[in-house]
Amino acid sequence: MTSSLQNTAHYDFDLPKELIAQFPLQNREDARLLTVDRSDQSVDHHHVRDLAQLLRPEDCLVLNNTKVLPAKLVGKRTATGGRWEGLFLKSDAAGKWNMLCKTRGRMNIGETVTVRDRDGMERSTLTLVARLDDGSWVMQPELEGDFETVLNQIGRVPLPHYIRGGSMVDSDLQNYQTLYAKHVGAVAAPTAGLHLTKSLLQRLQKRGVQTAQVTLHVGIGTFRPVTAEDLAEHQMHFEWGHIDQSTVQKINSCRANGGRIIAVGTTSVRVLETAAAGGALQPWQGETNLFIKPPYQFKAIDGLITNFHLPRSTLLVMIRTFGGDELMRRAYSAAVEEKYRFFSYGDAMFIT
User: Fold this and answer.
1) Which of 48, 170, 183, 290 has the greatest number of CB atoms lying within 10 Å of its CB?
2) How confident is the model over 70-100, as pLDDT tens digits?
3) Do residue 280 and residue 327 come from a single domain?
4) If residue 288 lies in a helix (H) or strand (E), which one and from where to where?
């Protein structure tokens, strides 16, 4: 390991804007799949549909079953008409919402915003109750009901800014959600799983590949670049996760039988590695701020299926740590040269 691996600038790279995918492919499994083999340092080209041949019968795919909320809100300041945007983060026991918000000027405590739904109709108001030290706001929704019910009425898909400037279309309601999404709580999709179709999962099952599910509610910090010059100075975000006893037993049994544990997405990695922090995989529930960076030693995974990540992101640092810095730099260069589609709606990579 060299000191350069701790330097954030080491994880920068140039990406032509035209390679940033704005929409997913019509058939998700038709996405390209860059395969990276750490044992022989090779880089090859396949498609996601080829996973039915690339995976072994005894392998186990670990999926993150979090479900994305329509957490983005758009509206205006009721008194002035000034533009306002918000991102729902969580709700407390009293029904108040913790949000990230932006508007021109400073809003006063007690001031309201009028929210427009996906059709542009004014539907409800939110009242500013307090500002927190971390920059988020506490707001009181006017509509009654739990946050999921209310957001389904007035919220929008929280697309990252690099997809159409964050502006959703109706198809994003389905496209920005995995097939197996179950537990509500994410404000961003675990995007590696977007490639998995019902047909592909059936073919994998027929081949003998097992699947296991964990939960990690992906937070907004996922998209924030590392701004500190030294990785050690980066303050990692917390995300809530869960892995139960039966899942642990399935994974341990698979590995004992010679199978590989293949995490689908960096979010699944964070759950597994947090739960294996003591050396052996254990049931776990809680918040994790695990930042996987050199010289981290992986305990729980043998392979990783992941999308292509933003420069200077904690996710890029993670996959460089897992795949090997030089090999992963070469893989990303190959992806750019071969015009792979990048980021959330883009192509994928399989590292073993």
Assistant:
1) 48
2) 999 999 999 999 999 999 999 998 999 999 9
3) yes
4) strand 284-288
By the 8 A CB rule, do 81 and 280 touch? no
Structure tokens at 125: 């108001």
Q: Which residues of 119-130 are buried (b: 16+ CB within 10 A; e: fewer)?
A: eeeebbbbbbee
- The two beta strands, 210-216 and 60-64, are parallel
Question: Which residues pair with residue 100 across a beta bridge?
Answer: 87
Residues 6+ away with beta carbon under 8 Å from 229: 7, 8, 9
The residue behind tokens 């992963």 is 328
Q: What is the pLDDT of residues 330-344, one digit of tens each?
A: 999 999 999 999 999
In a domain, 165, yes or no: no
Instruction: Tell me the β-bridge partners of 263.
Output: 62, 304
| Residue with tokens 């701020």, as numbered in its chain | 289
**Which residue, chain included where needed, has tokens 């041949």?**
53
| Judgement on whether residues 261 and 224 belong to the same structural domain of the protein | yes
| Measured distance CA(159)–CA(152) in Å, rounded | 15
Output the average pLDDT for the chain.
Answer: 95
Per-residue pLDDT, 2 = 44
Q: pLDDT digits over 253-310, tens only?
A: 999 999 999 999 999 999 999 999 999 999 999 999 999 999 999 999 999 999 999 9
Q: Which CATH number goes with the domain that contains 94?
A: 2.40.10.240
Instruction: Choose the final residue of a domain: 125, 156, 187.
Output: 156
DSSP β-ladder status, 261-264 and 60-64? parallel
Query: What total of structural domains would you count in the chain?
Result: 2
How much is the pLDDT for 223? 61
CB–CB of 301/38 below 8 Å? Answer: no
Q: Residue 206 is part of which domain span? A: 3-68+174-351
Strands 284-288 and 32-37: unpaired
Taking 50 as the threshold, does the pLDDT of residue 1 lie above it?
no
Q: Give me the helices (H) in 89-190, please.
A: 147-154, 172-175
